[in-house]
Amino acid sequence: MRDELTGGSQQDRGEEEVETEAEVEGEGITGESYWKRKEAFNRASTVSLAVGERFSSDVILLFSGRRRSSAEPDSKLQEALRTRLRVVESNSQDVIQLFKDLSARLVSVHAEKDHFVITFKTVEEIWKFSTYLALGYVARCLENFLCDQSFWLDPVLLSDVEICVNVDEEHLATLYLGLLLQEGSFFAKALLNSECTEEEEELTYKKNDLVMVKDIGQEGTWEGTLLSTGQHGLVPVHSMQPLPYPFYQWFLRKYPGSTGGISSEKGLFDQPMVTGTCVAVVDHYPMVKDELHFSQGDLIEVDGLFISSLNMFIGRHLSSGHIGFVHKAHVRPENVKALSRQLVFLSEEERVALSQFNPCHEQCHTGLLDRLFSTDISTVYRLDRLDDSDFTYIRNQPKQEHKNPVDARKSTISEKSETPPYHSSPRPSFYASQSHLEREHEAFSFSLEDTFREMDEYEEDPPNYIDDNIWETEEAEFVDPILTLLNLDHFQDTFQPLYDISYSFLDTVFGGIPEDEVLLHLENVREGAKKGRMLWAHRRACFLLGRLCAKKLKYSQARVYFEEALKVPVDGFDDKLLLIALYTNLTAVYLKQKMTDKLPYTLEKASALILCLPCHNFCSLDEFELLKPIVRKAIVDNDKHLEARTCYLILCLFLQQRKIEEALPFVERLQFLTVTLSAEEGRPMGPVDLNWILCRLYHKKYLPYLALASLSLDSAQDHSLEDAFQKIELFIKNSVRLNPRWRDGTSLLPAQVVVYLQQALSIASHGEDLKTQRDLCLCLASVYQQYGALDKAVPFAHQAVQTRSHINEEESFEASVLLAWLLVLTGEPETAQSTLQPLLKSLNETDSPTQRGVVYNLLALCLRKQCRVTEATKNFYCALKISQENGNKHNEALALANMGCLALSVGAPCLAESFLLRSLHLFQFLSESPFDEEHVQALLWLGRSYKDRGGSQEVRLCYEIGLLIAMSAKNLHSQMVVAKVLSRLYADLLLYGQCIIYYEHCVGLSRELKDKRLEGEYLEILSSLYLSLNTEKSSRKSLDYTKQSLRISIDLGKRQEESETWLQVGRIYYLIHEDELADMYLQAAVKTALRMNDPRFAMSIYEEAGDVFFKGHRNRLAAMPFFRDGSLPFARSIKDVHSEFRLLSKLSELLLKENQYEEALQYATLAVQSSTDTGVRLNERVAYHRLASVYFCLEQYEMAENYFLKALSLSPTVLENTAEAHYYVKVYCRLAELTLHKLKDAFDAVGYFHLALAAALEDRGNPQALYIIYMKLAEIHANHLPDAELSQRYMDSAQSLKRELTGHTDSSEAEHENMDHGNPECADAKSVGYSNADSGSSGSSTLVGSTTTDTSHTITAQRLADHNEAAVADYSHQEDTDTCSEEMYSGPAHLTDAETSYFNQTNHRDASELNTKF
User: Fold this and answer.
1) Is 1255 in contact with 1216 (CB distance < 8 Å)?
2) Angle between helices 1177-1193 and 1157-1174 (to 10 degrees)
3) Per-residue pLDDT tens over the stretch 685-697
4) What pTM value is reported for the model?
5) Which domain holds residue 1194?
6) What is the C-alpha end-to-end distance of the chain, expressed in Å?
7) Where is the SH3 domain (predicted)?
């Protein structure tokens, strides 16, 4: 991952400050570049800000996901990260622990804004966090934390996606300064020379001097202590720059000391580190023998490295071949070259040694692959799957307490085969002395002794150079073999124990005698060497005496011996290790004793020896004393290369001594410098990737997030197969620390393990260990299978099978069976069958019954998938017989269960019951074994067989027993499957109380599994169930569950579901009469929908929100803003004319009901215009009818009559059913009433009533309307158009109809027939009605679907004309109002299907109402 830091602009300064600024900015470009910005430190305003009360200590950490293949940001990836963060945010402890590992304090999480708010309380916290940020660990930790499992299973996506993080560098730098001031004293570098002053309180310093400063409360002045001299005084704030890197503050505070002692001279070399040859520019005649003698013009080859920051290097005279110290000022470059661009400060030998260095010598445990792939696929039958409600995957990995993994592997071999047992180990030596993964309490061993212990088993005992009686004679010194050994004039391999850091010479040379006796003997050797002029023996004896004295902390005595050894006149470079050990140990003693007068003599040479010569072998831990002033020099000189090389030597020294706490800061610093120096010149990371070492150190310190981050960033260069298995081991151990359920096997290992398995497979594929390759492929196939990625599992299973040509058949059987099983799961039974048949043929020639049974069982599954039931039954029977013959009860139970499943699939529940009962009888004796999922599945099938035969009690019993078994086994997956089935069962039985109980159990399981998606689905179901109970208490319970579902929708970032859930909460609040809260939640639903930028969805949410009030009985006008200001503008913007017409109709209906006729007229007029655009005649008819109703309410009767007639003109020309006739009756009655009483036109009224009468005679299901028409015609002919005879006929017809309606006649159809034959007027009216109907068009289901609601009132007033008038008016008005309302709810856009449906509903409802009222 790539970490980015925002930048800022520089300000103008004076010439000297600009020069200093350039030096500071030159320290680095990436990583902690914000520490190097001088303006953040040397301005008084910044200091005031850092300590001011208004300064916020909060730091914003932004994160973003992007694809390497595209420069554009990936919005989908970013939204996925936000969603994941919302989910984990609910469990804040995980996030807090993550940032705790990163040495930061989490303040808050803002998923929508893509950032975290963190803070720091100490400088050390900022130091650690800034280091992790620069090394990429922060980004990688977030990647491991936020990316779901599917991300790691997709190698293409994994290689393309990265997470970037950044912080505000200015703010972080100011916070750093503030924390420095709070801690009291800190270290700073002088930006310029001090001004000449006579005041004694002023401190005199030079540019780049290190000063420890302290805030004493004086504005613009600090108290300072010069590190080089220890002098105290006052320094101006503006001339001091706090050291930019927190590492420097920590180092100088933890390891105090003087910065003097090593001075730098300018040379002619431009590169920081080079190799090659130089030319002498002066004649040099050295005073000491270890310096090189040369003349001007001589060529000198650099031995090791030439480091420009040091004044000396080791050179070889090309003419004489002599080696010695050379002063940098005495030569100029001739033919030099910088180190490899990939090797910034290390030699190739050092790079290889460091890459292979293992601070923890614990190898991967025995049977790592066996544990990852401890399958029983080759010995245990697989269960079939009937449909999607069955278990999607029954883990074929037995629990550890049931069977040892190695034993499980052995069982794959033929029961009677004499083939040696198979051991799944990449290399037997890898596993020979390992501990199990479960022994988590055992820390890594960082001892070199463990490594040598195994080597010592194969080595002979070291030679003992001491004769037990060697110093019993007076001439002992002349015959001592040790003296002879020490006097060899060149380095020998046997001298190595003399100089190593473990003092092994005490055992190898002196046989482990007490140190006091060794000292006495070495003193005799020293005296003998002096007497015999044995110079090399003299030097080595003095050196060994000095080492032992320093070990006993007798530094003065050790210094005397070391100085004496150096004075011995020998060519020191003939034994280079001795020379290095002498100078480094003597210099360390000088530093410990603070002998500054003697220090310059040895410090430069010791520095050259330890830094310039590759692959330094440490002689003593005291050599760290020599490395400390070199680090201080690197800080003063701002020399990153020198600092990096020194850090490399320090970490090697500490790690060899198992000083993990002391080594870790230097390893981190070296990795940071590696990244920094690589980025400066735009080259890849070099010289070596230390993430491998850091991973093991973080594991040792119990920092699992950092261990996993550094492990994933490891480049895997130069790694062996053993290293690859150690990476898998470390990954598993640290993953277990984050999720202890992975330890006991109750949860799958994280999907990231496939990354490390593939790395191991890549390495193994270059070797010849086919067993390891096969095992790794099987592991990968198993992991992919467990996560449901079957398409990725099959290729690895294929690869495992391909190795069978190189290994024996028994070992390839497991891979072949797994491949066949995966093919069955992926729906490729034909391919699986072709894989299994050769296996079965080969097994028939061997005595391997269990394996044959496994193949028969899988073949039967393949055949059932192909609907070849007879053949499948035969194979199941063969598998069953084999298991019975072998006494394998588990396989017998599985075979019987599969046969029961087969019977269920062909519709034979009785036969299935027989098989399943036998299977369950066997399973009950296996209850102590980990077969709960198989047992539960058999119970589910048995319950289904009972269900097919209608046995509800037996079904419930089977399912509930299955749930109990799953609960006793603590198998969350099994519980989820059974609880879901039980919930559906009780829902089908309408037992909603029990249904709710099991769905609540599903919610609890989802929370344990941390599956937010499932939890949200079950919460929605529970909400609906509680709401259906229709009580106030249940409604409030539904409200609670809906709100929980809402929170999950927000967390998952599902805007559509979130908006719909807001809407549902609003509906529930309206149902419990909390209208204000309902409106608030409905507005939230609308706002959420608007954020989706989907106008059609926003329109629908607006409309549904308005419908909550529109379809209710309270506060109906609250729907107006949602319709008018929301849905309608969206409908117009997307040109959805059907939605626009529907909304205009709702608005006009709403306003009409609320008696706001003027405004209703506007929307009704717009609805008419919109109906034409829809192209649907039904919509036009609806619109004209409603517009006529509005005009009628406004008492504009002529307009009303006009639009009613317009609506009739759009009615069908032929009456297709009684519903059409009902509509004609209703509208013609309205027109007749309108013309008679409002327009005072009796002739037109009679015509309309005759038309209504004709339609009523067709509408046999509505006799009330026919009765009213007869009475109204009788009244008109009696009063308005006098005709006594005709009036009496209509009155008689009405009286006859009344008697029939009160139950004294037969069916209504017979009555209408009699009236047709006995009343010619009726026939005439009917014919007139048909002729008039010819001018109409199609009818509306919503217009003709209403019923008469107040006919009883009209019947009681049958004899009075005024009462008849009121009845007709009430009937017609009520019918019209109901028509509008019904049309609004049903919607006119459903056209013919909806119309027909509504007609049918109307007929049934009218008949029901008639029976009720009469």
Assistant:
1) no
2) 170
3) 555 778 888 998 9
4) 0.74
5) 1151-1210
6) 83
7) 183-245, 273-336
